Amino acid sequence: MRFLWPDLLWLLLAIPVLVAAYLFALSRRKKQAVRYASLELIRGAIGPGQRLRRHLPPALFLLAMLASILAISRPSATITLPSEYLTLVLAMDVSRSMQANDVKPTRITAAQEAAREFVRQLPGHVRLGIVSFAGTAAIVQSPTDSRDDLVAAIDRFQLQRATATGSGLILSLSVLFPEDGIDLESVIFDRGMARGPRALPLDGTRRDPAKAGKEDKAARATTERKVVPPGSYTAGGVILLSDGRRTTGPDPLEAAKMAAERGVRVYTVGFGSHDGITADGEGLSYYMRLDEETLKAIAKMTGGEYFHAGTAADLSKVYENLSTRFSMERRETEISALIAAVAASLLVLAGLLSVLWFHRGTPGLTRGSVGV
Fold first, then answer.
1. Number of structural domains, the chain?
2. Element at 126 (helix H, strand E)
3. Whole-angstrom distance, CA of residue 298 vs CA of residue 233
4. What is the mean pLDDT of the chain?
5. Which of 4, 190, 233, 251 lies in disulfide reach of 263, CB 3.0 to 4.6 Å?
6. What is the distance between the alpha carbons of residues 208 and 369, in angstroms, rounded to a whole number?
């Protein structure tokens, strides 16, 4: 817990002063008490319960004062609350390795079914965009809260050669921050992450000079963007699923750095076996192995989390976990009103007990007449 106005905590010094004043008043009351022939008879009539409740209203008043001082100091705490409006981007690997059948019936079929269920479980306040990546990356569905459109987009996945994990992550950021003008080609060109001469982008075509100027300007704006702490962006995030290693495109860790600079958490999901698998396709045989090290590094760099899913059931559990996480979030919230309500309740309770108890004294005795 921290306080927005910590200087007001000096008022807490009034608490021991009030305690001392109360003890002083009790000592004076004892000296002025009427002397009885036997105080043991009075103590026996009053009982220990009567003596205890005599001090309860002042104790409640003291606690109310303590809570009031804390409330006016504007305390804040990190608590779990329902999430506000969120925009998520699901970046899905659609490389040829996803046709492997070590996850029945195939990886891509199992991944599509788990993604559909994830869409159905998303809270109503969450919008979802979908990006697919293989040798290149593409926006399959812009952020929307239409579950039917999202399911239809998942059904449109088409497998392609190669794996450009970094491209998928950069394109996901462009979906989250359309005002930044993030362009995959220009970002690669500006940061020097592409292979080959600077004059040629990844697809081998020469850039139009007029378009190149706009792209370079957008790239500079991206580079000059104010850096924020990793994980500080609370309006959205990225879920990146991959089953293999990057074979082309920008470095995924450079893309993760871009996400971290914007405070975007990237939750990475490694899909498939740890040991890898040999698969056949288009007359070729190739070996696929999950790159957990890179996926873990992306999650750590951005303040996200890494999950491994070796089976279709594992992937469904991962998505269920993420869906629950996005429906509730931990955030720092001012709790002055809550503590002020506690203080008011204590004051009311102290007043009620004083009225009820001190108006039901033992017949023949007046309040404060006996120093016991």
1. 2
2. strand 126-133
3. 16
4. 78
5. 233
6. 99
